[in-house]
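okkk here we go again. third time trying to get the coenzyme A bound version out, last two times i messed up the smiles copy paste (missing a bracket lol). double checked this time i swear
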Amino acid sequence: MASTNGITLRSATESDWPAILELAEVCFGMRYDQPEIENIPGLFPIDRAIVAVDEGRIVGHTVDRTMTITVPGAATVQAAGVSAVTVAPTHRRRGILRALYTAQHERTEAEGIPLTIFTASEGTIYGRFGYGPATVENAVSIDRAQAEFRPTAPDPGGVRTSTLAAAQDHIREVYDRWRRVVPGGQARPDANWNIWFADPERHREGASSLFVLTHPDGYVLYRRQWRNDESVATVAEFRAVTPEAHAALWRVLLSLDLLKKVEASLTDDDPLPLLVTNPRLVRTTARYDGLWARVMDVPAALSARTYQQDLDTVLTVQDPFRNAGGTFALRVRDGVAECTPTSRPAELELGIDVLGSLYFGAHRARVFAAANRIQAKDAGVLRAFDTAFTAERDPELGWFF
Ligand SMILES: CC(C)(COP(=O)(O)OP(=O)(O)OC[C@H]1O[C@@H](n2cnc3c(N)ncnc32)[C@H](O)[C@@H]1OP(=O)(O)O)[C@@H](O)C(=O)NCCC(=O)NCCS
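finally!!
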């Protein structure tokens, strides 16, 4: 591969694994637990890793695996899921990340994969590479003792306590049903389940091992902890396929005695605040992004998802990092899109990072236009584009990588 300033890029081999692991621990400031060390190679195979080498020492790394991810309309696309992007603190800000990313994205283009995705450590790095934040999560804290369900809130029951060992098959089956209908949900590899079911000490952050609640159409994994003289339950994963499972599981979570607070992560369209008598009790303490997305092939990506209204428009997409941009005609009928390169004049202009943010339906085109990150010919063009790109439900990251 490429060589710049004495730094060589090459594909990784089995013998590089200890150095890649050490680099990740230094860069992220943590130590992996044994179940992670055993399962990461199954999750992100070594032959998908690209390393930067200086005088025989590994000073940079990136890796990906092809993921199946759900898009609006409950269809799926293939995406390159990028992980463990690291450059040694001794070698920063001399273009190693840029060189690694160039090689990695060239490979993704050659493979014809229409999307790349990841979770970002910082918000300022990845826009230049054409990525935009593509989901919104609200961290919430609920004063459990005060929480009361409205008389009209469903009370379907059906929840049981379980152990992680006993509930594994159920959890996997429900997750798989859930991810098929939620934009942003990825199919989950065995190696990731192996890590979750081993419940590594590092994931606990001082809290208990995982407690489990199950419902025929849902499950909750949560931890208990004493913090500042208060008992807190932190939801590690909540998956409900039906509104009944959602209400039933929250009823049990909020009736755990000897517990002051429940902390969880909700999408904007989660109905929990509407199920309780005092919606302010579901207090948002932070808002953050989970998934980031970059469109690699505009026609393939835009014709893979569905749309909320018919549309006939022409858009120019700018891609300063790769060559995926251009001018495209987008025609939608009954939710289904055709997208082709065109020489017709554009009605809308936007960066490919903005397209990544709109793709799963978490962000609105009209808000990007207000920030001058979409330029539209007129208000009618913008309104139609804005409505068409919304989704039937808020997207959510399926599993963190
Ligand atoms: C983030 C990291 C990979 C950057 O590596 P690097 O080799 O120093 O990056 P480069 O020199 O190739 O920089 C590429 C571009 O990103 C910018 N950039 C890099 N790190 C940045 C940061 N932390 N904040 C803002 N911009 C950053 C550079 O200015 C450069 O911009 P330009 O090419 O448009 O001029 C490295 O600092 C690191 O390992 N950090 C800790 C682990 C981490 O956060 N990994 C990312 C996981 S998603």
